[in-house]
Amino acid sequence: MHLKEGSPDMPKRERKLGFYERFRVSLHDLGYHNNVSIIARYSNSTKILDSWPQSIFRGFSCAIQKHPELSTIVARDEDGTPYFQRLSTVDLKQLVTFKNLKDIEGEEVDTKLIALSTSENNRGFENTSTTPSWRAIALRESSDSFRIAFMWHHVIGDGRSGLAVHRSLLEAFQLFEDDIDCKSNRPTTTSLDFTHVPSSTKPLFTSMEHMLPNSFTPAATSPLQGLKWAGKFYNDRSPILTELGHIRVSANSVQRIIAQCRRHGTTMTALLQAIVAKTLLDRVPYDRIRTAVAVSLRRFFDPTFGIDDSVMGLWISTYTTEFHQTEFRYQNAADELDGLWRVSQQNTAQINGVIANSGKDVEIMSLMGVNDYSAAVKSRVGQPRDNSFGLTNLGVFGAVSTGRNTGGVILDDMFFSQSCHANGAAFQICIVTVQGGDMNIVFNWQEGVVSQEEIGGVMGGVGDLMRQIASSE
């Protein structure tokens, strides 16, 4: 049967992709970057588990209504121009699978999460022209908790988009006791048809170049003197394999470190950037390194656009910093922490400068002038990498009230990771914390680009310094 133009079942054409969205599609199609993922734990959820798996489908039905990106695909015109197309319905049974956490490889929970994330981050999305570019795995963990692993193509959202989806799921699960039909917002006693969940009627937000029309690429700064370490040269060996490592920082330690950051007039992101830079320069025979820290552009948009941390979209850039060995040379061990705080304060000043510019200086805007992204990234094979490491801190996922009217379900742990960037930094660091909970720091790197000795040394050094700072007065 052929669908007629204007038929309700006909996919709806949306806007063309912006420059950064086109870049992300090229990276995915080349196999250079597969996806981003967040695994979240939902506790106090006995009733959700009693209604498994229907309750999970209901949660995602709600999320689809709130986020139109979850029902879009990337289509192309005859000339190859990519654009978003909205499906009329979404088949959740094709996108959401169910497992038991105990069946995942590994003895400890964190080991299992690393194994699952590694497997998923090494899988891209097939048939992106017919199927939404996301998937999820619901994992039963105990009698009153489960986890949801949500993986998505970077073209439909940045890291905060994953937080937005999990927040929508949490809100849906908290309303479960009120028996709300997620398709109509009415109480219901009938089961929903999850074979064909209606897509959202909300409009897609526009791309970043339209949100920040007066932005430009900041002028390049002169590199510091000396040889720069950035792992092995950029290559496109296939398959490009992502490896992951993990550090969990206890909630008590997180609170103590945050208190120290406030006392020294700095932030957790700035401190972590300094800590990783120091541990890396302590372990490689090079003079300098270059870091790229992700920055959300949402805060710079006109508030009338309605873009905040509750919605999906790709609105990020980076700011870069160079560090030299001499910044981390101390006369004695007692000076080590003072030196780290000084560097951290310098990082904070840079972050504040980026914010003060209100989105005028956006490094990612340098991509706007590229006509063929695939050719551009391929042309750099065999060349040195620009950055030594990248850092993305999603910050703190705020706790949600669990009063009588919202049910007892809480989200109390998160694990954020992504596939390696074949043409990006030598390694990436992904960080997220749940309010009042542990901080999870995930390292990702491409097999063959960073040695196990190098990355193991950095991870060990970061863990040691975090513990040292948490225990200091």
Ordered list of secondary-structure elements with their pairings:
Elements (H helix, E strand, L loop, with lengths): L11 E5 L2 H12 L5 E8 L2 H5 L3 H13 L5 E5 L5 E5 L2 E2 L1 H4 E5 L8 H13 L12 E7 L4 E8 L6 H16 L5 E2 L4 E2 L9 E2 L9 H4 L30 E8 L1 H13 L4 H14 L6 E9 L19 E9 L9 H23 L16 H6 L10 E9 L12 E9 L8 E8 L4 E8 L5 H20 L2
Parallel strand pairs: 6-7, 13-15, 15-17
Antiparallel strand pairs: 1-4, 2-8, 2-16, 3-4, 5-11, 7-8, 9-10, 12-18, 13-14, 17-18
Which descriptors would you attach to this protein?
473 residues; alpha+beta; Chloramphenicol Acetyltransferase; 2 domains; six-stranded mixed β-sheet; five-stranded mixed β-sheet; 18 strands
3D architecture notes:
This protein is of the alpha+beta class and 473 residues long. 30% of the residues lie in helices and 23% in strands. The protein contains twelve helices and 18 strands. The strands form five sheets. The protein has a six-stranded mixed β-sheet, sandwiched between helices. Helix 5 links the parallel strand 6 and strand 7. Helix 3 packs across helix 6 and helix 8 packs across helix 12. The longest helix has 23 residues. The protein is globular and about 70 Å long.
